[in-house]
Amino acid sequence: MQGAGQRRLDKKGVSFCTRTTYDENAITNAVEIYESLRGGTNFMASNNDCGVREYDMERFQLLNHIRFPWPVNHTSVSPDRRLIAIVGDHVDGLLVDSQSGKKYNAIVLRTVASVVGHRDYSFATAWHPDGRTFATGNQDKTCRVWDIRNLSSSVAVLKGNLGAARSIRFSADGQFMVVAEPADFVHVYSTSADYKKRQEIDFFGEISGVSLSPDDESLYIGIWDRTYASLLQYNRRHKYEYLDSYL
Known about the structure:
The chain is an all-beta fold. 2% of the residues lie in helices and 53% in strands. The chain contains one helix and 22 strands. It has one helix spanning 242-246, and strands at residues 3-7, 14-19, 28-35, 41-47, 51-56, 61-67, 72-77, 83-88, 93-97, 102-103, 106-107, 111-115, 122-127, 133-138, 142-147, 156-159, 167-170, 176-180, 183-190, 198-212, 218-223, 230-235. It has a six-stranded antiparallel β-sheet with strand order 17-18-19-20-21-22, with no helix packed on it. The chain is globular, with a radius of gyration of 18 Å.
């Protein structure tokens, strides 16, 4: 896909559609939606043409176009909106300052740190709600967890079964991290147990991505297949006791 579009659930049709790149060999790899520091809703598109584009979703306006030396596969904005984790067709990721600003009509982002440890190209990033922890998913079949206070080594290295870590999500309460492989496997890790406890969801199908509901009660897994395309929903299981029900 070389473009990006916007739909509203409360209205019919497409609210906004634009072509993000005119490079015939480029595609839009990922879209990140977030609330800007100014209070509006923005989204950031990561493209194969080595560009990252930031859009205002309310005014349907391109705000920034940032260029990198390699195709960008995924970007994610920290909870305080001040840092951006960027990964792509390079073994190292980048942590950049989102507030660096413009210089001579070009966007110049200051690199805070390089994220070194993976052995292949990366495809996914995600931030923990605490704003200090983020994760990267790589083609080397690992998901690495990082602490911005010490990026000399990763906090955890989590290995997959078959393929790359292609999609990562933290729950809103920060208790869980969900990692999806390209097919068949989704892993749910307990962050409070230092990622040593996990639940593995095993099924048959190519995975387009994962997402959690805002209240963390449901996990959604997208299955892409020309015949059996579907959306799987898993609900969070609670162990209620009498005292819990009383409270």
